[in-house]
Amino acid sequence: MSATPAARDVVTRIAPSPTGDMHIGTARTALFNWLYARGRGGKFLLRIEDTDRARSTEAATQGILAGMDWLGLDHDGEVVSQFARAGRHAEVARQMLAEGKAYKCFSTQEEIEAFREAARAGGRSTLFQSPWRDAPPETHPDAPYAIRVKAPREGVTVIRDEVQGDVTIRNDQLDDMIVLRSDGTPTYMLAVVVDDHDMGVTHVIRGDDHLNNAARQMLIYAAMEWPLPVYAHIPLIFGPDGKKMSKRHGATGVAEYKAMGYPAAGMRNYLARLGWSHGDDEFFTDDQAREWFDLSGINKAPARFDTKKLENICGQHLAIMEDAEILGEVAGYLEASGQPALMQSQLARLGQALPFLKTAAKIYPQLLEKARFALVERPVDLDEKAAKQLGSVSNGILEELTPHLQNVSWKRDDLEEAVGRVMEAQDIGFGKVAGPLRAALAGRTVTPSVLDMMIVLGREETLARLKDFMAQGRAA
């Protein structure tokens, strides 16, 4: 055999099937592969396993690509279609046949099922052993045949796994699996191995539901005398109840989390921490994750998805994100959730408000709710609590404040001083001034700082909103 994977440049891959939405578990597997490759100057490849033509869809493929793009998991080279490589897969099957590593099996599906029924009735193993394994060519009928790889009948196969440790499987538990069907189409087991070899994959990092597949796929590696990749089978993601994560636990698709407004950086951080650890570190940057990630840090036990922890991590990332990145992701969130895009004027105000808003939100819906004052157009609609501020008392306060705002320099300290003058003149506390100001500027009673809102809105818009509010107060 040629050089071991450790002696070659690292190449990882993600190979999802385009049969539905990209699952959060697939996203985490992609992230682990991406981190491992990127942290070692290696390559991260993307293969679409679209051999199931009945269930594979172009929409699902585009969903996978969109999910990878949202998560920022860039791949090297072109996207590989497994279906497009069927000719190559068949070529390998025929090579194994020609070299005596595989054989023609003429058993029909009916004969195989009859064998299994008899085995069940007799209490024997239902593992099919083809009568054609050692049949001389002159006995072969002129009939369709499948190609089966020859599995060893004695001894054991040991899967050396970086996460699970050494996993031993008795060879008498392995069947001579079909690699090429009687209609000439390759099986999934063959296609995966051939693709991984041809793509130069050195590390196969995937869910532990594929662990048993490894022993069978190793038959093909051995038959072709190809170097084995390093295997790392990672535990599945469970819901809070300790059962495999599914729709009953809530959202499971990557697109759903984008549409719910989770920042991509927070999602990457949380998914990396879901089943992998670096000491007690919970919050870390992409650079730290690439530097720290190693297979030895992956846990054997399934990880439990915790939405509260996810939101907490997302909030920490939102607080340190660049404003331009946030604005870009807000646009993506609005599109994904079917909401109208923001106008340029709204984007400008939101951008001004981000420095004090992004530290007070965890996900984008929360951010936009806090930024509502900057996004609404006049006249500002009042909610029920804000409407209670209407009346002569509030009007008296705002009428006192308005002349100060018309002349003051529009800086925070000067605005604070103007509000202070009203408090002194009316002999009232800050809350009495802030109440009608919040209602007038945002239509809400729970808002960011009134001074911050005025800075963002500017003099003209602030005074116009106060005028609208006082007009409603006189009519109330």
Automatic annotation (TrEMBL):
<dbReference type="Pfam" id="PF00749">
    <property type="entry name" value="tRNA-synt_1c"/>
</dbReference>
<feature type="short sequence motif" description="'KMSKS' region">
    <location>
        <begin position="244"/>
        <end position="248"/>
    </location>
</feature>
<dbReference type="GO" id="GO:0005524">
    <property type="term" value="F:ATP binding"/>
</dbReference>
<dbReference type="InterPro" id="IPR049940">
    <property type="entry name" value="GluQ/Sye"/>
</dbReference>
<dbReference type="InterPro" id="IPR014729">
    <property type="entry name" value="Rossmann-like_a/b/a_fold"/>
</dbReference>
<feature type="short sequence motif" description="'HIGH' region">
    <location>
        <begin position="16"/>
        <end position="26"/>
    </location>
</feature>
<dbReference type="InterPro" id="IPR020751">
    <property type="entry name" value="aa-tRNA-synth_I_codon-bd_sub2"/>
</dbReference>
<dbReference type="InterPro" id="IPR020058">
    <property type="entry name" value="Glu/Gln-tRNA-synth_Ib_cat-dom"/>
</dbReference>
<keyword id="KW-0030">Aminoacyl-tRNA synthetase</keyword>
<dbReference type="GO" id="GO:0008270">
    <property type="term" value="F:zinc ion binding"/>
</dbReference>
<dbReference type="GO" id="GO:0005829">
    <property type="term" value="C:cytosol"/>
</dbReference>
<comment type="function">
    <text>Catalyzes the attachment of glutamate to tRNA(Glu) in a two-step reaction: glutamate is first activated by ATP to form Glu-AMP and then transferred to the acceptor end of tRNA(Glu).</text>
</comment>
<dbReference type="GO" id="GO:0004818">
    <property type="term" value="F:glutamate-tRNA ligase activity"/>
</dbReference>
<keyword id="KW-0963">Cytoplasm</keyword>
<dbReference type="InterPro" id="IPR045462">
    <property type="entry name" value="aa-tRNA-synth_I_cd-bd"/>
</dbReference>
<protein>
    <recommendedName>
        <fullName>Glutamate--tRNA ligase</fullName>
        <ecNumber>6.1.1.17</ecNumber>
    </recommendedName>
</protein>
<dbReference type="InterPro" id="IPR004527">
    <property type="entry name" value="Glu-tRNA-ligase_bac/mito"/>
</dbReference>
<feature type="domain" description="Glutamyl/glutaminyl-tRNA synthetase class Ib catalytic">
    <location>
        <begin position="10"/>
        <end position="311"/>
    </location>
</feature>
<keyword id="KW-0547">Nucleotide-binding</keyword>
<dbReference type="GO" id="GO:0000049">
    <property type="term" value="F:tRNA binding"/>
</dbReference>
<feature type="binding site">
    <location>
        <position position="247"/>
    </location>
    <ligand>
        <name>ATP</name>
    </ligand>
</feature>
<dbReference type="InterPro" id="IPR008925">
    <property type="entry name" value="aa_tRNA-synth_I_cd-bd_sf"/>
</dbReference>
<comment type="subunit">
    <text>Monomer.</text>
</comment>
<keyword id="KW-0648">Protein biosynthesis</keyword>
<dbReference type="GO" id="GO:0006424">
    <property type="term" value="P:glutamyl-tRNA aminoacylation"/>
</dbReference>
<dbReference type="InterPro" id="IPR001412">
    <property type="entry name" value="aa-tRNA-synth_I_CS"/>
</dbReference>
<keyword id="KW-0436">Ligase</keyword>
<dbReference type="InterPro" id="IPR000924">
    <property type="entry name" value="Glu/Gln-tRNA-synth"/>
</dbReference>
<comment type="similarity">
    <text>Belongs to the class-I aminoacyl-tRNA synthetase family. Glutamate--tRNA ligase type 1 subfamily.</text>
</comment>
<feature type="domain" description="Aminoacyl-tRNA synthetase class I anticodon-binding">
    <location>
        <begin position="345"/>
        <end position="469"/>
    </location>
</feature>
<keyword id="KW-0067">ATP-binding</keyword>
<dbReference type="InterPro" id="IPR033910">
    <property type="entry name" value="GluRS_core"/>
</dbReference>
<dbReference type="Pfam" id="PF19269">
    <property type="entry name" value="Anticodon_2"/>
</dbReference>
